[in-house]
Amino acid sequence: MAGQSKLVVGVDVPWVTSWTGEEITGAAPCRTVGGRLALMQASAPGAGKPQYSKNHLVRQRLTVARMLCPMCGEPTEEGDRWTQIAARRCAGQLRARGGQVRADIADDRVMIDAGSIAPLHRRCVDRSMKYCPHLRASDDVMVMRFPREWIVLPLLVKAETGPGVAVAFLQLCGVTQTIDRRWRAETAA
Ligand SMILES: [Zn+2]
Q1: CA of 121 to the centre of ligand 1 (A)
Q2: Torsions phi, psi for 27 (to 5 deg)
Q3: Ligand 1: distance of its center to the CA of 71 in Å?
Q4: Which value, in Å, is the radius of gyration of the alpha carbons in the chain?
Q5: How many CB atoms are closer than 10 A to CB 87?
Q6: Cα 5 to middle of ligand 1, angstroms
Q7: How far is CA 136 from the centre of its chain?
Q8: Which of 13, 16, 40, 133 could disulfide-link to 50, CB 3.0 to 4.6 Å?
Q9: Mean pLDDT of all residues in the chain?
Q10: For residue 134, what are the contacts with CB-CB under 8 A and spacing of at least 6?
């Protein structure tokens, strides 16, 4: 058994972070993805050491599926959803990579690709910037409001048992009202 850490989950360590005491247990139907097959992981936050570069599989999916703040684990409300490291991409670029983007979103619509990181509360953004040296040093950090509309793209892995695929993490993309004219020009050419 891994010993219990003195670090406080949601305060010293982000809620979504995986711990060495949390074993990955394989694929099973999961409520975070409507009963689809998903990779599962034991839940024992605080057991052993935090793995800062790894998200817990189930907690990560919960943050995206229920719009929970990855830092504190509490729900975020519309108007207080912020993203720190997000890339602007066209819907067409996401489709080209195999993302199943809803049919009513045109290829030239600009999307805010937050990757696997659900939006944070503003207070949690400010705290994470204060405490996380990686974030402070990164040129990619740009705090912005997360759009009101979004889509969720399941990141699939091959299930170890059987022929199927299982959901590992959920990718989150905000949908903006902006059109990328360059994309339109390039694909028309
Ligand atoms: Zn928070």
Answers
A1: 4
A2: -90, 140
A3: 5
A4: 18
A5: 13
A6: 21
A7: 20
A8: 13
A9: 91
A10: none
Q: Confirm if 15 and 59 have CB atoms less than 8 A apart.
A: yes
Per-residue model confidence as pLDDT tens digits over 70-104: 999 999 999 999 998 888 999 999 999 888 899 99
Q: Could you report the per-residue pLDDT of 41-61, keeping only the tens digit for each?
A: 999 999 999 999 999 999 999
Nearest to 87 by CA among 119, 117, 112: 112
What's the CA-to-centroid distance between 66 and ligand 1, angstroms? 13
How many angstroms separate the alpha carbon of residue 81 from the centre of ligand 1? 9
Pairwise CA distance, residues 62 & 32, whole Å: 6
The H or E element spanning position 188 is helix 181-188
Q: How far is the CA of 145 from the centre of ligand 1 (A)?
A: 14
Distance 68 CA to ligand 1 centre (A): 8
Distance 84 CA to ligand 1 centre (A): 13
Taking a 5 Å cut-off on Cβ, the residues next to ion ligand 1 are: 69, 71-72, 121, 124
Instruction: Extract the tokens encoding 63.
Output: 């943050």
For residue 59 the two structure tokens come to 């907690």
